[in-house]
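User: My instructor asked us to take a sequence, write out its structure as C-alpha cells, and then describe one feature of it. I'm not sure where to start. Here is the sequence I was given:
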Amino acid sequence: MMLKIIFNKIVILAITLFLVACSTKESPKIIDIEPSIHINQLAFELSGPKSAIITSPVNSDLNELTFTVHLTNQVDSVFQGKLEKLSVFDEWQAANKDLQRVYHYRADFSALKQAGNFQLAFIHQGQKILSSSFFIDEQALFKHTASALLDYFNGSRNDEEYNYQQDQNIRIFGTQRYVDVRGGYNDAGGDSGKYLSHLSYANYFNPQQLAHVTWALGYSYQAIPHLYDELTLTSQIQSEIFWGADYLHRILDPEGYFYMTVFDQWGTNNAERVITAYVGADGDYTEDYQSAFRQGAGSAIAALARAAMIADATGKQGEYSAKQYLADAEKAFRHLMQNNADYCDDGKENIIDDYTALLAATELYRATEDNYYLEAARERANNLAGRLSAEGWFISNDINSDNLRPFYHAAEAGFPIVSLSQYLTIETNAGEISQAKQVIAKHLAYQLELNAKVSNPFNYARQSFKRYNNGILSSEHQEGFFIPHANETNYWWQGESARLSSLTMAAIIGRKGIDNEQHKIELANFAQNQMDWTLGRNPYDISMLNGFGVKNPIPYEGLGMFKGGISNGITGSKNDDDGRGIEFAPETDWHNWRWVEQWLPHSTWFLLAATEMAK
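Assistant: Let's start with the prediction itself. The C-alpha cells for your sequence are:
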C-alpha cells in the first residue's frame, strides 16, 4: 500500500510539473519591458517606402498611438503618423528569449520626402522611445555603401597575403597537371578557398560565387557610371572588374571548361590545396572539377563578356585584353553547349543551368550581336517559362517528374527573374517579350501572395520547399520563412542575406514591366523590406552590413571581418529540420559560421540591389 501511495504521489507530481511546463510554454513569463523600435539603421530612398516595426508587450496597446520623425539632435518633428497594429505573430517568440509575447505595430512614414539624418520616436507611459538614426536621401543606400562594398571586395582578394604564389603552380586533383590559377577572391571571412560554386553534389543548391562578383561589378558600373564618377570610385571598380576577369581567364582550361574550385578543406587536416570539387561537410575531394553552367560557368561567361565590353568602351584592361576576355567567353559557352549535362553531377540540367546560361547568352549577344546567342537565350527563357507552375512557383527538376521540386535557394532566389529581365533588354520578338513578362509578373505575384498568406510583420520573403531526408524528396509541399535544414546537401543551411538582396533586385527590376499598379506598390514595399531586414529591421536589431548600424555580428576567434562585408544572417531554429522558428548566433566558436561569417554572395547581391534602387 505504501508503495502504491508513493507511486501515486510521484504520478501526481509528474502531472503537475508537466502542466506547469505546458502552462509556461503557453503563457510566457511577463516581465516589465519597454516597446522596441526595429528599423533600417542606415538609409531610405527619398521617394521610396519607409517604415519601422514596433514590438510591445501584450499588456500595453499602442494602436493609433502617435509617432514622430525628427532630425537627429532636434526636438521639432518633421512628420507625424499613427502606429498601426498588425495581426498576431508568435512564430519568432524565441527572438524575445521566450520571456514574453509581443504585439507588432507598423510606423509608416513613406510620405516623408525630406533629405537628412533622422530618428523616429513616440511617447510610452511618459517615456520617450527613440530609434537609431537613419538617412533619407536620393540614392541614399548606394551613396552610403558603395565605397565600403568595393573595399570589401578588394580586401577579399586572394593576393600576396594569401595563396597567390602557391596558386601560380597548383595541381589538378587526380592528375599530375599543374596550372596557374593565381588571383580571384577568398570565398568567405574564414575561407581562402576560391569557388565558382560549391554544393554541386546536391544539384539544386549551386550558388554563383566568385564569377558573380565580377559580373555584378560590371553590371553596377555600367548601370550608373555617373554615380561612380561622382563618388570618385570609377578607377577602383574598374580595377576590381579586371582583377576578377583575369582570374576567370586563368581558370579556363584549354579544352573549354572552367575549373570549379581551388580548395584545401578550409585550411584543416594539412590538406593539399588543389583544383577540385568536394562533397559534404568533410570536404572530400572529387575529380568533378569541370564547371557546368550551374556550377559557376554561366556566371563566368557572363562576367567575361561584360568585362570585354567595358574594356572596349574604356580602353582599360587587366593583364589580358578585351579581345581575350570575349574569346574566352565564347569558347566556354560553345563548349558547354555540347558538354554541359556531362559536367552536372546527376547528368541532368535543372533550373540553375537555365537561368545562368540565359544570363551568359544574353551578355554574349550584347557583346557580339551574333544571333546564335540570341537563339540560345530564347531557348533558356522558354525553359524557364515551362518551369513556372500553375500557382506561380518555379520547378527545379524535370518538369515531367512525378514529384515536382519547388525552386528555393538560400543565396539567389531572385536570379531567375533577374536573368529574364536582362534577356528582355535584348529580345525583339513580341511573342517572346510577352511570354517573359508574363512569367515575371506571375512569379512575383506568387511571391507577394506567399508573403501575405500568414501573419508576417517584417514582410520577410517566404518560400516554398519540400524536405529531403535519407535520399528521398518528400511529396509534401511546404511553405515557410527560412530554408529547411533537411535538404539535399545534408549539412548546409545558413543565414539568407544574399537571398534577400537577390529578391530585392528581382522585385525592382521585374516590377517595371508589370501593369498591375497595386502589385507594383507591394513590390516596392517588399523590396525595401528585404534590405531593411539586413540593415537592422529584424527581431535582433542587428545590421548584417559590417561597419554600418548600431550593432553588428560579433566575430568568433579566427574569423576575419571587413567593413562592407555582410554576415550570413538569421535562420530558422537550429533544431528544426523544417527551418521553423528563429535563431541567430547561438554558438561560441566557429560553429557560428552559419550566422556570423561574411560571404561573397551577400555583398555581391547587396551591391546589385543598391544599384537597382539608385537607378
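For the description part of your assignment, you could build on this observation: Residues 1-31 have pLDDT under 50 and may be disordered. Try explaining in your own words what that tells you about the chain.
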